[in-house]
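Quick log. Single chain, no ligands specified.
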Amino acid sequence: MRRIKTTFLFSKMKIQLKGRRFETIEEIQAESQMVLDRLTKKDFQGCFQAWQRRWDRCVHSQGNYFEGDG
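-> predicted structure:
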């Protein structure tokens, strides 16, 4: 569960901050906070729904191995 949350957040941050250079830690923190502040309820709902689909696949597999999210 933790991996899904961090993947969701870090992918959003990576897209917004990629290729930029920062002079101070404070600049990094401020820009990162702005990215997080712009996340919407819809962003989190989509993440949660994707997590639920993966969770359902795990439950339905009844312990059998499967790959990917497809």
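The mean pLDDT is 82.
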